[in-house]
């Protein structure tokens, strides 16, 4: 290891640059097509090594740049979400960039292709999954969002037990039924149990990741009580491209990903496949998974585009059990797949999407449990420009989910159950004044088991000056009981009712100097009707008697020390009168990125406070610090190699009670693109 760490002080970024000639005219508009003056607009060469222009837009939201296409452009200003895009072609006239108001969202741009020799340094205001050393979507959320926590039991493999959990601002549950994962604009959930499967979310085909901290039930309905994790697949680039990434490290831990995309006129295709494996740092803790996806799209007209996508994955995971009560021989095998058919449209005054989707899964556990589940549904959303300064979202969705389960060892048949639900929503954003943005939304949802339920949201963003903005938001969220809670185990209770939450938050975003962007958010959540388990086994009962008052503070900052050195950090404090298990009261994340032209070094870590291990609050896990160092070095115009060291300071800690995490461990690999 002493030889490994010094060699890790190198990472890349070498690409050819484009010639600069001619002029490009940019115009930045808000969602109401009104100009946004004074925003920071930076234009770089396509490889991002050359800064062509860095300045602010004029009073009409315009900026003229001496450059020729293709280029990359980034726009950032308080009150709006960060925008980054590649400009490959232009039809003449202004290149219009539309900004989205920042209200409830914290957006994380996932840079999967983190190869400085090929793609150049990324914008430091974007957080990178690859540079964080994350191996899965869940891992990335834990490392990049201070208010999120994902307890793990090893290097790879969460399994289906209590490690199948994730919380954001103290909400999520174990299993995670209070947070929703959305993949390519469609909710993704295990139909019978009502929760996502962590080991199914690899990074094989992830292009961007967006975290909504706080209820998002107006837009997504059921299960978005505490927030939403939106995963968008990688968008194919013009031409033909193939990428291969391979890693191998401690405990025979490896991940291999292959992607290929191409374009033939209006037709685009992309397929991806991945393999992951580890023997685990404890006996009986192995993990194996494979997943693959295929997406086809066709531009029918300049306005309409049709697409179809399919995905399948399979994994096997072993659970050694806690140290105080080992369970050798415990395993789970899961296969999940699905497809979606999409139709997208975009004009100057309107944009929208339609998704019809279906997914299914087959779960097998060592204790004899077997289940088959499915989820079938559709989702529509259309954004309309009613008049200058007023934008409206309208849409609806419906789904039918459920399945059947049995135990082949005991012979017990749990039965077959299905639930249907659907609803409609509307949201409006109004640029009431040059400095004031207002938004409101409403959803009505109806469930075959619980009848109707509503969700609402209100917010405003006020820009005090070019670099200072205040956002206020109020939102209601809900979660319906799952089929497991109603009819399966641990105590089937068909009389359960939905959980409800009101969330109130304020966020202040500021840029005191051009190199520093920071924001502070305070929130208060009142959660009612929580489903809790009472009594002692085997006389258990589920009841809607839980209530929690959650409050917290989040502080985030990104500082570009020099053009090639940047710092990012975030801190979250959480307090509650009824804290859920494995929710830290304090969490601090930090990263240092150093671009050495021919090499790149990324150092990051997180310090996590003490957590309760159960609702009884009798045992706590100690605080810990886990750090990661990643180094990438180019070996030519298409190749790069990298090394990652986890738990850099060899800390002894647990994220789940009885499951010690591995000590210092390392992996190396390569990336090639052609």
Description of the structure:
The longest helix is centred in the N-terminal third of the chain and has 8 residues, at 137-144. This protein folds into 2 domains: 4-101, Immunoglobulin-like; 129-673, Maltoporin, Chain A. It is mostly beta strands and 674 residues long. It has a 22-stranded antiparallel barrel. Strands 8-13-14-11-12 form a 5-stranded mixed β-sheet, with helices on one face. Helices cover 4% and strands 57% of the residues. It is built from 6 helices and 40 strands. Mean pLDDT is 87; it is low at 1-20 and 103-126.
Q: What's the short story on this structure?
A:
The protein is built from six helices and 40 strands.
Low-confidence stretches: 1-20, 103-126
Highest-level CATH class of the largest domain: Mainly Beta
Number of helices: 6
Q: How large, in whole angstroms, is the Cα Rg? A: 24 Å
What's the total number of strands?
A: 40
Task: Name the features.
674 residues, mainly beta, Immunoglobulin-like, Maltoporin, Chain A, 22-stranded antiparallel barrel, five-stranded mixed beta sheet, 4% helix
Task: Please outline the helices and strands.
Layout: H1 4-7, E1 23-29, E2 40-45, E3 51-56, E4 62-66, E5 71-76, E6 83-87, E7 95-98, E8 105-108, H2 116-119, H3 129-132, H4 137-144, E9 148-149, E10 167-168, E11 180-183, E12 186-188, E13 208-213, H5 217-220, E14 227-232, E15 241-249, E16 253-264, E17 267-278, E18 287-299, E19 304-319, E20 330-346, E21 350-365, E22 369-387, E23 390-407, E24 413-431, E25 436-447, E26 451-465, E27 468-479, H6 483-488, E28 499-510, E29 516-536, E30 539-562, E31 565-576, E32 586-595, E33 600-608, E34 611-612, E35 620-621, E36 624-634, E37 639-646, E38 654-656, E39 659-660, E40 665-673
Parallel strand pairs: 1-7, 11-14
Antiparallel strand pairs: 1-4, 2-3, 2-5, 5-6, 8-13, 9-10, 11-12, 13-14, 15-16, 15-40, 16-17, 17-18, 18-19, 19-20, 20-21, 21-22, 22-23, 23-24, 24-25, 25-26, 26-27, 27-28, 28-29, 29-30, 30-31, 31-32, 32-33, 33-36, 34-35, 36-37, 37-40, 38-39
């Amino acid at each position: 290891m002493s030889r490994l760490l010094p060699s890790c002080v190198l990472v890349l970024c070498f690409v050819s640059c484009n010639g600069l000639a001619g002029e490009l005219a940019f115009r930045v508009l808000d969602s109401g097509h009104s100009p946004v003056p004074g925003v920071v607009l930076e234009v770089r060469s396509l490889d991002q090594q050359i800064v062509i222009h860095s300045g602010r837009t004029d009073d009409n939201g315009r900026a003229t740049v001496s450059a020729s296409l293709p280029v990359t452009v980034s726009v950032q200003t308080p009150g709006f979400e960060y925008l980054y895009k590649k400009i490959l072609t232009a039809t003449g006239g202004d290149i219009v960039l539309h900004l989205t108001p920042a209200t409830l969202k914290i957006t994380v741009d996932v840079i999967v292709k983190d190869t400085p020799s090929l793609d150049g340094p990324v914008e430091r205001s974007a957080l990178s999954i690859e540079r964080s050393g994350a191996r899965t979507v869940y891992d990335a959320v834990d490392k990049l969002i201070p208010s999120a926590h994902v307890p793990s039991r090893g290097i790879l493999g969460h399994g289906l037990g209590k490690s199948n959990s994730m919380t954001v601002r103290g909400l999520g549950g174990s299993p995670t039924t209070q947070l929703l994962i959305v993949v390519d604009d469609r909710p993704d959930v295990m139909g019978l149990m009502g929760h996502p499967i962590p080991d199914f979310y690899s990074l094989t085909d992830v292009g961007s990741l967006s975290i909504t901290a706080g209820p998002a039930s107006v837009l997504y309905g059921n299960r978005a009580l505490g927030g939403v994790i939106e995963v968008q697949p990688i968008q194919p680039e013009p031409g033909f491209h193939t990428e291969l990434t391979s890693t191998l490290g401690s405990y025979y831990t490896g991940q291999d990903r292959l992607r290929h995309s191409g374009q033939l006129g209006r037709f685009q295709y992309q397929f991806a496949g991945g393999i992951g494996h580890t023997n685990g740092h404890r006996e009986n803790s192995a993990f194996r998974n494979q997943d693959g996806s295929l997406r086809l799209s066709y531009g029918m007209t300049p306005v309409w585009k049709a697409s179809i996508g399919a995905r399948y994955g399979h994994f096997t995971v072993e659970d050694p059990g806690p140290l105080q009560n080992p369970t050798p021989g415990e395993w789970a095998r899961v296969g999940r797949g699905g497809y979606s058919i999409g139709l997208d449209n975009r004009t100057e005054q309107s944009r929208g999407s339609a998704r019809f989707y279906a997914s299914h899964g087959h779960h097998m556990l060592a204790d004899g449990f077997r289940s088959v589940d499915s989820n079938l549904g559709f989702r529509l959303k259309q954004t309309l420009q009613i008049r200058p300064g007023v934008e409206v979202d309208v849409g609806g969705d419906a789904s039918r989910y459920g399945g059947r389960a049995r135990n082949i060892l005991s012979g017990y048949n749990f039965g077959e159950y299905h639930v249907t639900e659907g609803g409609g929503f509307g949201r409006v954003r109004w640029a009431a004044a040059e400095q004031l943005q207002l938004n409101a939304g409403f959803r009505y949802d109806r469930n075959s088991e619980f009848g109707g339920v509503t969700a609402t949201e209100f917010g405003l963003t006020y820009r005090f000056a070019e670099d200072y903005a205040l956002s206020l938001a109020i939102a209601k969220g809900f979660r319906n009981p799952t089929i497991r809670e109603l009819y399966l185990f641990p105590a089937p209770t068909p009389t359960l009712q939905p959980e409800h939450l009101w969330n109130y938050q304020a966020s202040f975003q500021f840029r005191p100097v051009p190199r520093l962007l920071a924001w502070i958010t305070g929130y208060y959540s009142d959660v009612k009707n929580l489903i809790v388990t009472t009594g002692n086994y085997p006389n258990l009962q589920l009841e809607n008697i839980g209530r929690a008052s959650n409050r917290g503070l989040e502080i985030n900052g990104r500082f570009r020390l020099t053009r090639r050195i940047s710092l990012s950090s975030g801190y979250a404090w959480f307090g509650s009168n009824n804290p859920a298990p494995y929710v830290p009261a304090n969490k601090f994340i930090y990263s240092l990125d150093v671009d050495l032209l021919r090499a790149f070094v990324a150092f990051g870590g997180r310090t996590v406070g003490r957590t309760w291990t159960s609702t009884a609050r009798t045992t706590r896990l100690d605080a810990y610090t886990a750090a990661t160092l990643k180094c990438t070095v180019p070996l030519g115009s298409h190749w790069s190699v990298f090394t990652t060291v986890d738990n850099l300071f060899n800390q002894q800690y647990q994220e789940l009670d009885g499951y010690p995490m591995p000590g210092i461990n390392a992996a190396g690999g390569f990336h090639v693109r052609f």
